[in-house]
Design goal:
Elements (H helix, E strand, L loop, with lengths): L1 H8 L24 E3 L10 E2 L10 E5 L9 E6 L14 E9 L7 E17 L5 E13 L2 E4 L5 E6 L14 E2 L3 E7 L8 E6 L5 E5 L1 E2 L3 E2 L18 E2 L3 E6 L29 H4 L6 E7 L7 E5 L5 H8 L14 E4 L4 E4 L6 E3 L13 E2 L6 E4 L1 E2 L2
Parallel strand pairs: 2-9, 16-24
Antiparallel strand pairs: 1-7, 3-17, 3-19, 4-11, 4-18, 5-6, 5-17, 6-7, 6-8, 7-10, 8-9, 11-12, 12-13, 14-15, 19-25, 20-21, 20-22, 23-24
């Protein structure tokens, strides 16, 4: 799991803190198929199985106290576009997900991640929660791993995983950079598991996944209201049930080796671009246009939280005095007035508010797991 990996690799790359950014040319990637697995970052007593890794998951949460708001919500997002740097250079996936029920998981809870893979066509979503992709510039496809933790022993594995397929062709739903998509997560009277319908508003193509595990049965939303404190009890953060996350602290899907765990300050063969804000500014960002709920209302309040305490992690591996040097900065959420959307990464042109940049992520665990009783990072309300 994440903390065990930190103990193994905690000193990597610190001698190279002062090096300048090493560019990755857009389009410079291999088309070789690769098996990868990026799991959900759990608390200390949980460990990964099946060759999966996990690390840093800075998230943004839409908030609502309305009944049913955590059981029926629709995200509207504009997909990022490669620039002089490929989008996947800063991390292999971003995802939209939330806490679901699972009778075979600790505290009866599992966690969905609808993972979007930049510059990738998915050729398979594995039973262990992993994925196989081939390079395709400015193309996005997705898998839907649901992570569970054994009630005894603390191992994290996949309870479910499926490819997001195009309802018209049966192949992977292929979305493209700059497309506006919606991700509708909801339940039906059949109670056969959470439904996920992704619609590409630009092309009109769509696909649906139903979270119905062959072993664990229907995986339903664990909470009714999208409020802070309705948090995953085996997780590291005290947040709302549903969130959008960019999985950072990994190299891209097309480095050699691919999708490797990495830390702030690392400028070795595969530099850790996740923690270099200037790299994020070299491609067009994700635009989070908003979230609407089943009753027609929309999110007016938003919160952010990181499971490593944001800058706390950078200071740990770079040293506090080196914050702001290459590969020693923490990306952040901001509101872009020009695009009327939240972005992630840095202060892109048109940014009107960046919520204190790294300071939006609390650095101390001052909250408590709802059922686990251990410390968690609290979320910060942004708006």
């Amino acid at each position: 799991m994440g903390h065990r990996l930190l103990r193994l690799f905690g000193l990597a790359g610190l001698s190279a803190i002062a090096l300048s950014s090493i560019p990755i040319a857009a389009g410079a990637a291999s088309s070789t198929s690769q098996a990868l697995c990026v799991a959900h970052h759990p608390t200390e007593y949980v460990w990964y199985t099946g060759g999966c890794t996990g690390h840093d998951e800075p998230e943004i949460d839409p908030l609502s106290n309305r009944p049913g708001s955590a059981r029926d919500l629709t995200w509207t997002v504009v997909l990022p576009t490669d620039g002089t740097i490929n989008v996947d250079a800063v991390g292999p996936t971003f995802w939209i997900g939330g806490t679901v029920t699972d009778p075979n998981s600790r505290y009866g809870q599992a966690f969905l991640e609808l993972q979007f893979y930049p510059n990738s066509i998915t050729t398979g979503c594995t039973a262990g929660g992993g994925y196989n992709v081939v390079f395709s510039p400015n193309t996005y496809t997705a898998c839907s791993p649901v992570w569970e933790v054994s009630r005894k022993g603390g191992s994290e594995s996949a309870a479910f995983n499926a490819m997001l397929t195009d309802s018209a062709s049966g192949g992977p739903l292929m979305m493209h950079a700059g497309d506006t998509i919606t991700d509708h997560q909801y339940v039906t009277p059949a109670a056969d598991g959470m439904h996920i319908t992704v619609t590409d508003l630009t092309t009109g193509h769509a696909g649906t996944i139903i979270l119905n595990s062959k072993i664990d049965g229907p995986l339903m939303p664990a909470f009714d209201r999208q409020t802070l404190g309705n948090a995953l009890s085996w997780g590291l953060v005290n947040d709302a049930p549903n969130s959008l996350v960019w999985e950072i602290g990994h190299t891209g899907d097309y480095t050699t080796p691919a999708g490797q765990f990495c830390l702030p300050g690392s400028t070795t063969k595969n530099p850790c671009y996740s923690y270099n804000v200037p790299t994020w500014l070299k491609f067009s960002p994700i635009q989070i246009k908003g979230v609407t709920f089943g009753d027609g209302s929309s999110a007016k309040s938003w919160a952010a939280v990181s499971d490593y305490g944001g800058r706390r992690e950078v200071d740990q591996y770079c040293g506090a005095a080196n914050y702001g040097t290459p590969f020693c900065t923490y990306p952040f959420y901001a509101f872009n007035r020009a695009d009327n959307a939240f972005t992630y990464g840095g202060d892109y042109p048109g940014t009107s508010q960046d919520f204190g940049q790294w300071a939006q992520f609390q650095q101390q665990k001052n909250c408590t797991s709802p059922m686990g009783g251990f410390p968690q990072y609290c979320a910060t309300v942004l708006t």
